[in-house]
Design brief:
The chain is an alpha+beta fold and 390 residues long. The protein has helices at residues 12-23, 36-41, 50-58, 63-68, 88-91, 102-115, 164-167, 236-245, 249-252, 298-319, 323-326, 328-350, 357-373, 375-386; strands spanning 5-8, 28-31, 47-48, 70-72, 74-79, 82-87, 97-99, 120-121, 125-130, 138-143, 146-151, 154-157, 175-190, 200-203, 209-213, 219-226, 260-274, 277-278, 281-283, 289-290. It folds into 2 domains: 5-72 and 98-178 and 269-346, 3-Layer(bba) Sandwich (FAD/NAD(P)-binding domain), CATH 3.50.50.60; 182-268 and 352-386, D-Amino Acid Oxidase, subunit A, domain 2 (D-Amino Acid Oxidase, Chain A, domain 2), CATH 3.30.9. The two termini are 34 Å apart.
Length: 390
């Protein structure tokens, strides 16, 4: 098989890249190791920056988002019961975020790809990129016991943190920066109305909590737990009891309980790989970086990679210019590190780091006091939360 761009990974970044290229008349084949149902079963983020919403509009995949997405003009920071609303729209000239689940974004992109008849190969085994340092890159895979090969101009590695794309790069050619946090998020999804109309990020002596939602009838709640905890240790009743303890009293009273649809513990880490281009192979999304979910940047940061990469590839095929793809890594990384900083800062301020001692706890309180008293500080948070410009 021959294509212009072979995309490894059918998560949101790979699907969005494929759709933007297809809209520009560029042929792309997507290879995915898992089944389509498995990809759709992943429970992930649901806060979309302005930039991601605009990319989905460009890709022709925003109709359902506009009907069902919840536009949020602010969110709340809570510190040991004290609450401060960050008014996103007032502080950023009218910008906002949209709550719309990553699963729904993925479904919309899958449907759009199917509607135009582009090729996505699911359950592709042993996917391997070859010769991306030369002039004739290719990707091999096995399907139904038969080995296939795709010849292409470029390879886009959108296959996540554990994917084959980054692992295929020689160790000396890539630098990796990482911080692992000593705790995780225990998340619960339930068909109950949200405790608040906007997200609440709560610092508490017992640990962090986040009150989020997927719709007006489905809530997504999180609490900070040690990595030694197991999901089996947490009944729904125990979760809700602990969750309420960490929220401001008036919000805790509004928490409606119900049976969990999904419950899991996710470890937190910060990770960046540099550079993001290796000959004809490009890394994008979680293959290139991971952020703690505290700042709602994971999906949005993947989308910004796709913006830079798709623009560069479109420029290459339309104008014969390699400027965009040559600058992809530096442009994407400049924004990646700013998002990493914001997620690191949110994580550092809101979580309990018992091993850090009383000084660190006082610094967290000082941060919150500054935010509540300074419009400049609140504006910095708002600008980062709605998304820095591409």
């Amino acid at each position: 098989m021959r294509t212009q761009v072979c995309i490894i990974g059918a998560g949101p970044s790979g699907l969005l890249l494929g759709q933007l290229l297809a809209k520009a008349g560029i042929d792309a084949v997507i290879l995915e190791a898992r089944s389509a149902d498995y990809v759709l079963s992943r429970i992930r983020a649901g806060v979309l920056e302005t930039g991601l919403v605009e990319l989905l509009e460009r890709a022709g995949c925003s109709d359902r988002l506009k009907k069902e997405g919840l536009v949020h003009h602010g969110f709340c920071l809570a510190f040991d019961g004290r609450a401060q609303r960050i008014n996103l729209s007032d502080l950023t000239g009218g910008r906002s975020v949209v709550v719309y689940g990553q699963t729904e974004v993925t479904r919309d992109l899958m449907d759009a790809r199917a509607a135009i008849g582009t090729v996505t190969i699911y359950e592709a085994e042993d996917v391997t990129p070859h010769d991306f340092d030369g002039s004739r890159p290719r990707v091999s895979y096995r399907k139904d016991g038969i080995t296939h090969e795709i010849e292409c101009d470029f390879i886009a590695g959108c296959d996540g943190f554990h994917g084959v794309s980054r692992r295929s790069v020689a160790g000396a050619a890539i630098a990796q920066f990482e911080r692992a946090y000593p705790f995780g998020w225990l998340g619960l999804l339930a068909d109950v109305p949200p405790a608040s109309e906007e997200l609440i990020y709560a610092h508490h002596e017992r640990g962090f909590a986040l009150a989020s939602m997927r719709s007006t009838t489905r809530s997504r709640y999180y609490i900070q737990v040690p990595l030694t905890n197991r999901v089996e240790d947490w009944s729904d009743d125990r979760f809700f009891d602990e969750f309420r303890r960490r929220l401001p009293e008036d919000v805790a009273e509004r928490v409606v309980t119900g049976p969990s649809l999904e419950k899991s513990i996710a470890p937190l880490r910060s990770f960046v790989a540099e550079p993001l281009r290796f000959g004809k192979l490009f890394l994008a999304g979680d293959a290139a970086h991971i952020v703690p979910p505290t700042g709602a940047k994971g999906l949005n940061l993947a989308a910004s990679d796709v913006h830079y990469l798709s623009s560069g590839l479109i420029e290459y095929y339309r104008e014969g210019s390699a400027g965009g793809i040559d600058n992809y890594s530096s442009r994407a990384l400049a924004r990646i590190w700013k998002a990493e900083r914001f997620s690191w800062w949110m994580t550092s301020m809101l979580h309990q780091f018992h091993e850090a001692g009383d000084f660190a706890a006082r610094m967290q309180l000082a941060e919150f006091d500054y935010i509540t008293s300074s419009t400049a500080a609140a504006t910095t948070i708002a600008e980062n939360y709605v998304g820095l410009p591409f």
